[in-house]
Amino acid sequence: MLRIQGLMDFISENEMLDLDSSQLFSFSQSITESEFVQLSKKLMGKEDFSLYWSNPSENRSFLALGEVYSIYRDDITNLSVLDEQLKILPFKISYSDPYLAEFTPPLFVGGIKFPSLKKDEVWNDFEFAKWSIPQILLQKNGDEFQIIIYTFKNNLKRVLSVIDEFYNLVGKNEEKCIKVLSSRPNEGIDEWSDCVNLALRKISDKKLQKVVVSRFNQIELNAAPDLLIQLQKLENDFDNCAIFAYKSKDSIFFGATPEKLFRVKDGFLEADALAGSMRRGLSEEEDDTLKNFLLHDEKNLAEHKSVLDFIINQLSPVTDKILFDSQPSVKKYANIQHLYSMIRAVLKKDVSFFTLLEMLYPTPAVCGFPSDEALDAINELELFDRGLYSGVIGWFNLSGNAEFSVGIRSALLKKNIVRAYAGCGIVQGSDSFSEFKETELKLKPILNLFENETKHKP
Predict the structure, then answer these.
(1) In the prediction, which pLDDT does 27 show?
(2) CA 388 and chain centroid, separation
(3) What pLDDT, on the 0 to 100 scale, is given for residue 317?
(4) Which residue of 18, 38, 52, 229 sits 20 to 30 Å from the alpha carbon of 256, by its own alpha carbon?
(5) Is the separation of the CB atoms in 65 and 169 below 8 Å?
(6) DSSP assigned state of 391
(7) Cα–Cα distance for residue pair 88/94, rounded to 1 Å
(8) What is the reported pLDDT for 256?
(9) In DSSP terms, which residues pair with 342 in a beta bridge?
(10) pTM of the model
(11) Does the CA dihedral 354-358-361-367 come out positive or negative?
């Protein structure tokens, strides 16, 4: 149980020490694994949960509820303006545990939409770019479990009522009998082929080298699903991905993304170059054959190299040293395998997260190359707003730690409607039918949650 008196004493002591300063109080307390599990069930059922984040392979996860302070941006240009807002926060933060000020807990959570010119009302619940300090954060880091409260004194009564409420609620996670009432792709193979062929004409006219085009499949369910159960299924099937659910108003954007945009810790940056795809084999022998094909296929290698080169070139001005794999390896997931290179770099001093986001996003893996020409082509070829699909989801704190992933293998959930998205990179030599099959493969992580299809793991 949360030590309410400990929270009250902490706030009182800090007010006496700093009477003139507006303070955001960060109060942390260790909890048991059982409490963490039960509270997670209850928080996911509340309307104002904001972000669920999990790295199963690293045994790390957190769940954020509510918001006490937010920063916004209306478009992709000048994201670094948000840095100025962070420099002039109208409060200072007082930590009950000084270790937290230098450790890894998220402070701001949120996301950025893909910069599409089209505006679809299905995405209206989300701002273009928004980062918020949650009211309550449950965090799991290995075998350690914590609850962290972020509050101003004038908001304390509301926080305490929320805590009292979910400590007295009964957590429910009975699996509902979810059935698919209808399934409708936004376009069939003929419309898709027209789109890909137009993209290939632009490439052959030397207007661009690569463009990523996408499609979606919308399914209607008989009832709103229990999202925590779906997220746990994704964690089991895709334990080397980042599992997320980002909520705003009546909409939840969720998925299992294999693509880390970048992570920063203690001045070191890690980024993924993930491009070039192949299905998994039905046997170990076939799986190895497909892997070897992927490692030597010129089209996939060229697509991967364009992403790797882009990231390295963009990072060069803001890093002192960059290390990367000279040859890509293959990273395998439950239903697909990708060419993969990890990039490590030492950041120069005072390089902000939003400067990095501005430099690295959107990558050729989700947009194309050159970026401006590819984005123009996407706005012409795609007849819908991507919203947060292929956008950025993640967290950061003011101690120099952050993690941002690209929102692929993902879907938008609104009540009982699920819209799952997938895309692929079109380069010279692409075949529309093969690319259509690739998008079908990439849709499966989400659609399988509701259609009870079997995933084969060689």
Answers:
(1) 85
(2) 9
(3) 95
(4) 38
(5) no
(6) S
(7) 16
(8) 96
(9) 272
(10) 0.91
(11) positive
| Predicted local confidence at residue 246, as pLDDT | 97
- Tokens encoding 240: 């080397």
Task: State how far the alpha carbon of 404 is from the alpha carbons of 95, 130, 271, 356, 368, in Å.
Answer: 24, 13, 9, 11, 19
At residue 8, the pLDDT reads 64
CA–CA distance, 36 with 165 (Å, rounded to integer): 16
Strands (DSSP E) contained in 11-75 are: 23-30, 49-55, 60-65, 69-73
Instruction: Give the C-alpha distances (Å, rounded to integers) separating 204 from 134, 222, 227, 376, 429.
Output: 48, 46, 44, 16, 10
Environment class of 89 (CB within 10 Å of its CB; exposed 0-12, middle 13-18, buried 19+): middle
Low-confidence ranges of the chain (pLDDT < 70): 1-21, 98-103, 162-176, 452-458
Tell me the C-alpha to C-alpha distance, in Å, between residue 96 and each of 102, 151, 163: 13, 12, 18
Tokens in use for 269?
Answer: 């940056």
What pLDDT does 20 receive? 47
**Alpha-carbon separation of residue 196 from 49, 190, 299, 335 (angstroms):** 39, 10, 16, 24
How far apart, in whole angstroms, are the C-alpha atoms of residue 289 and residue 266?
40
Residue 321's DSSP bridge partners are: 346
Instruction: Locate all alpha helices (DSSP H) within 138-219, ordered by sequence.
Output: 156-168, 189-204
Catalytic residue numbers read 210, 259
Q: Which is it for strands 23-30 and 92-95: parallel, antiparallel or unpaired?
A: parallel
The pLDDT value recorded for residue 214 is: 97
**Distances in whole angstroms, Cα of residue 58 to Cα of each of 145, 269, 297, 343, 443:** 14, 17, 32, 19, 25
Token pair recorded at residue 67: 């918001």
Distance CA 350, CA 400 (A): 10
